[in-house]
Design goal:
The complex is a heterodimer of chains A (284) and B (286). With 284 residues, chain A is an all-alpha fold. Chain A has twelve helices and two strands. Chain A is 72% helix and 2% strand. In chain A, a hairpin with a 2-residue loop joins β1 and β2. Chain A is globular and about 75 Å long. Chain A starts with 10 loop residues before the first helix and ends in a 5-residue tail after the last helix. Mean pLDDT of chain A is 86; it is low at 255-284. With 286 residues, chain B is α/β, with parallel strands linked by helices. In chain B, 37% of the residues lie in helices and 24% in strands. Chain B is built from eleven helices and twelve strands. Classes of the chains: A mainly alpha (284), B alpha/beta (286).
């Protein structure tokens, strides 16, 4: 039996689980999605406050945020997950138990996962937001101050809204990673898509097939997010009055790339980057 | 610092002799009713480089003062000190009889004001930047309205009515809902002037308002500035536009190397400059 070679791919199992997943699998998929969305949202809010604290005049506060970022970015997410769920309970500090929010039972393991993913991601978000705030031209702050805004008002009404534009691309990247990292929550027993797949694998022994199905669902999630992200970016660009030609997706640009271009679009069109085009129409 | 200022020719500022006497009573409240800006012996250094070496200047209400001088002479730095964008190292500046950015504490020492108080002072002083600094994520109208709404706390409707009136005044009635990215340089600067006017300032500071513009757009901005001057707005303008200075300024102030070299009516400065440095500077421009 061990000598058996040849391909054992259960095609019908694969297709049936792909097109008609079990209820447990769909519940796992939903858990993956809401874990990622809730954690990313909380992490973005926490990250903003950490980034602002990093710019504070109070040195101990800055140091505390630095320490926080250093620890959460410098240790594995899996280790953090184990310490927060099992570790805190083991030393008797805190035990996550089921709670009911608005009629919905939130299992302790899910709470622990959300807390860990939030704390971990907030460390990255604070760096992203800090860099984005710095990327806003310093003249913007002076303009706001010149109209009599306090530094706080300038931050809130002028700097932060502009920093959003710089935050979105790296945030999108992180959210993509977040959706995949939720699979780590399986080690503490969160029934998300990966754990459900593991269970299906151990009962059916169709290991390759079920994980291929899981992989395709992860791919679908990140792909959908990719579209959502570009829609958000286009929307923000429009709000800045930057009009891009309809951005061709990789699908629609596939055919165009084959077409040889005659002459350089750059010299004819005047501008190489379509984004630059909108920025300075007055100079044409 | 005093050694540095003693390098400065003492003949430099005839007018500053008069303002120097204000030092005695520059306690933040006692400036004359007609003078809106009083700068006395202002020193500013960036690290080891002393950019302002004791500048004194008094500007009357309704006066248009144009600061000229070679680049690096400290004109822009001095202008930025007037609304406390730069902290001064010595001397004092008061606007409307109130010290800018500082208060005198119980022991008679200068202390920097709280941020909220500095903001209140700046709300009375318009500032127009060389590079416009319009908010790129907001339309022309929103750019003008933001200050009145957030600082003066007036309603959105009221602010927009004010904003429309001011954009009309600078000739941009067709551009209310256009973003800065879709405006020419001259249009951007006119929006920026409207934004400054929206706070109903008592004084507007212009930092090389036409230096970043293509030549054909300079005229439209200068025209707006001329109309402001005609309406009696107090303006301090750092500029290389000698034509504008000659036509609109009540007084031209020549700065060089961190000191005020000479000042006087434009006719006197341009046609009969008293100082070699002024002559040399003007000769280079022609």
């Amino acid at each position: 039996m061990l000598a058996t070679t040849g391909l054992h791919f259960n095609t019908s199992f694969f297709w049936s689980h792909l097109t008609n997943p079990t209820t447990a699998f769909l519940q796992g998929l939903w858990t993956t999605v809401y874990l990622a969305i809730v954690s990313q949202t909380l992490a973005t809010i926490l990250g903003l406050f950490l980034a602002l604290a990093r710019r504070s005049k109070i040195a101990p506060l800055r140091a505390a945020v630095w320490l926080y970022t250093w620890i959460f970015r410098g240790t594995p997410l899996l280790v953090q997950l184990m310490m927060i769920y099992d570790g805190l309970a083991a030393v008797g500090l805190y035990r996550f138990s089921n709670i009911t929010i608005a009629g919905l039972v939130v299992p302790g393991v899910v709470q622990a996962a959300v807390v860990t993913f939030t704390l971990n991601e907030a460390a990255y978000m604070s760096e992203i937001i800090r860099a984005s705030l710095n990327a806003v031209d310093s003249g913007q702050l002076e303009a706001a101050l010149s109209t009599g805004m306090t530094p706080m008002q300038a931050m809130r009404h002028v700097i932060v809204p502009q920093a959003v534009r710089f935050v979105i691309p790296p945030l999108g990247n992180d959210f993509n990673a977040m959706m995949k990292n939720t699979s780590l929550a399986s080690v503490i027993g969160v029934s998300e898509m990966f754990l459900v797949s593991t269970e299906i694998s151990s009962t059916t022994f169709n290991t390759f097939e079920i994980f291929a199905v899981a992989a395709l669902y992860y791919l679908a999630l990140t792909t959908v997010w990719g579209f959502v992200q570009s829609a958000i970016e286009r929307r923000i660009d429009r709000r800045w009055g930057i009009v891009r030609p309809p951005r061709s997706s990789w699908l629609s640009s596939w055919g165009r790339r084959q077409v040889p271009s005659f002459g350089s679009g750059a010299t004819i069109g005047g501008s190489i980057d379509p984004a630059l085009e909108g920025l300075d129409p007055g100079r044409r | 610092m005093t050694e540095a200022s003693s390098d400065v020719p003492t003949r430099a500022t005839a007018a500053s002799a008069a303002t120097a006497s204000t030092t005695d009573r520059a306690d933040g409240n006692g400036a004359q009713a007609t003078s809106i800006v009083e700068a006395v012996d202002v020193h500013k250094r960036f690290g080891s480089l002393e950019v302002l070496k004791g500048v004194s200047l008094s500007v009357e209400r309704g006066e248009v003062v144009v600061l000229i001088g070679p680049s690096g002479s400290g004109k822009t730095t001095f202008l930025r000190c007037i609304n406390h964008f730069e902290k001064i190292d010595q001397g004092r500046i008061s606007v409307n009889g109130r010290l800018i950015g500082y208060r005198v504490d119980a022991k008679g020492n200068l202390r920097e004001e709280r941020a909220a108080e500095i903001a209140r002072q700046r709300a009375e002083i318009g500032f127009v930047f060389q590079h416009f600094n319009l908010y790129p994520n907001k339309t022309a109208l929103e750019n003008v309205c933001l200050g009145p709404r957030k600082v003066r706390k007036i309603s959105r409707d009221e602010a927009e009515e004010l904003g429309r009136r001011l954009l009309q005044r600078v000739g941009l009635e067709a551009k209310f809902d256009v973003h800065p990215a879709q405006l020419s340089g001259g249009q951007k600067q006119r929006v920026a002037i409207a934004r400054a006017l929206a706070m109903q300032p008592k004084l507007i500071l212009f930092d090389e308002p036409t230096s970043a513009l293509d030549p054909e757009m300079i005229g439209e901005v200068l025209a707006v500035m001329k109309s402001l001057a005609a309406e009696g707005m107090t303006m301090i303008v750092v500029s290389h536009e000698m034509g504008f200075a000659r036509e609109v300024a009540d007084r031209v102030v020549m700065m060089d190397d961190g000191v005020l070299v000479e000042e006087g009516p434009p006719r006197q400065i341009f046609d009969h400059p008293a100082h070699e440095r002024t002559r040399a500077f003007l000769a280079k421009l022609l």
